[in-house]
């Protein structure tokens, strides 16, 4: 029987696969400017979630690395699921708002407009914030500190590499409009960074 966390994970995977298929069907998704960052994000995020799954089952119930909260059984799973759902909604919404300009690789079209509506009103890279929430929620639902740490740190490192490459491409292709937008919005966390 599938748990809600597993179902949400499968929905996440289906979203990511559908985005790659969409790129292929449209003839987009060129990796020329990507510098391999798509594979860095996929590789580190997938490694973190797989490791979190392994640690969830290998760590004994009484381990000091497990979350414990007397009187609140399953709080980590419920909270993790909530964080994952928020991440899935944010990632999906970001894709919809960006529309045909959304790609799984770093690829900016000449004449592309800077999008400042929806979640792009608050942060420049909300789809990556969604990925980070999905991964961290998965680690939290695994119920131990090691899984949580891996699903926060590894995807964050990959996203930081990706954002650096993507921002360079956006400035190079979109110029002043993107620089103006960048000056007024944070990268990943509204009002923080």
TrEMBL record:
Keywords: Membrane, Transmembrane, Transmembrane helix
Top-level taxon in the UniProt lineage: Bacteria
Classification via InterPro entries: ICMT_MeTrfase, Metal_cation-efflux_comp
The keyword Iron-sulfur is annotated on this UniProt entry: no
Membrane-topology annotation of the record: Multi-pass membrane protein
Localization per Swiss-Prot or TrEMBL: Membrane
Pfam families (alphabetical): ICMT
Membrane-spanning segments: 38-59, 131-157
Main location: membrane
Record's keyword annotation contains Disulfide bond: no
Name of this chain's protein: Phosphatidylethanolamine N-methyltransferase family protein
Biological source species: Amycolatopsis ultiminotia
Lineage per the UniProt record: Bacteria, Bacillati, Actinomycetota, Actinomycetes, Pseudonocardiales
């Amino acid at each position: 029987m599938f748990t809600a966390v597993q179902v949400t994970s499968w929905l996440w995977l289906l979203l990511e696969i559908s985005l790659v298929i969409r790129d292929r069907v449209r003839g987009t998704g060129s990796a020329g400017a990507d510098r391999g960052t798509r594979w860095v994000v996929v590789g580190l995020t997938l490694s973190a979630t797989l490791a979190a799954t392994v640690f969830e089952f290998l760590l004994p119930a009484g381990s000091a690395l497990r979350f414990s909260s007397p009187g609140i059984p399953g709080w980590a799973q419920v909270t993790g699921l909530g964080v994952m759902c928020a991440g899935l909604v944010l990632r999906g919404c970001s894709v919809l708002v960006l529309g045909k300009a959304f790609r799984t690789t770093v690829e900016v079209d000449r004449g592309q407009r800077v999008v400042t509506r929806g979640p792009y009103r608050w942060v420049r890279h909300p789809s990556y914030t969604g990925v980070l929430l999905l991964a961290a929620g998965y680690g939290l639902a695994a119920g131990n500190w090691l899984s949580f740490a891996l699903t926060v740190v590894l995807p964050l490192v990959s996203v930081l590499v990706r954002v650096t490459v993507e921002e360079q491409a956006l400035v190079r292709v979109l110029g002043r409009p993107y620089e103006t937008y960048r000056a007024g919005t944070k990268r990943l966390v509204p009002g923080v960074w």
